[in-house]
Amino acid sequence: MNIVLPEKFYFKGASRENFARVENGYLVIRGTVPFKKMMYDLAYKISGTTKCFYCGKTISKGKLTLDHMYPLDLGGPTIPDNMVPACSKCNSEKSNMTCAQYKEFHLIRDHKERRILKRNVNEYHETMRRKRIYELPKNWVTDIALSTVIVELFFKEKFKGTKYNNIKRFYENYGFLQKPIIVNKNHYLFNGFTEIVFAREIGLQKVPAIVLDNVKVIL
Predict the structure, then answer these.
(1) The CATH number of domain 32-130, selected from 3.30.1760, 1.20.1440, 1.10.4160, 1.10.30
(2) SS3 sequence, 23-76?
């Protein structure tokens, strides 16, 4: 998939040699930059920083958050296409609902009906997990060979811990990874290091991935 990009964008890394910028419709990354923070900056650049996507209210500077339209615990990625500005009330209230589910919830004023909708949403999420289906657009996710993933190893990264155990527990319960990894078309890994560690340990040949075709990496 091609992520949404502004015409101009520059993100500074830890040194002059490390940066990212938009060039001819591509996000070009030179060296190592913090991917998640860069995606947040991109999303703010595209969506603005003052108006809530859900309720439409204008929020004072610094009070707006970014919400994942497809929640993280449903496999939603941290990319501009999946993030919209939201006030803290809407972000908290939406919780693990998708954007479409929350819009339906937002139209309901009766508290009992809202509780029923939340219960139905949670039951639906569980059904989808049992079916091993990501609640994401179908064209976002594809399976790629684990052996093709290019991993830049950071020794500060903990191989095992709470995150690893959560991935393992989810896989034992449902039989698939809770979220796709994020790579570019050359399969350079941006997000999902712990998932890769787990997948290699249990001998998976393929992993679900969101492939960003318009992102280039220059090491």
Answers:
(1) 1.10.30
(2) ECCEEEEECCCCHHHHHHHHHHHHHCCCECCCCCCECCCCCCEEEECCCHHHCC
CA torsion, points 135, 140, 144, 148, in degrees to nearest 10?
-130
Q: Do the Cβ atoms of 11 and 19 come closer than 8 Å?
A: yes
Extents of the domains making up the chain? 32-130, 141-213
Residue pLDDT, tens place only, 101-121: 999 998 999 999 999 999 999
| pTM of the predicted model as reported, rounded to 2 decimal places | 0.93
Contact partners, residue 137, CB within 8 Å, separation at least 6: none
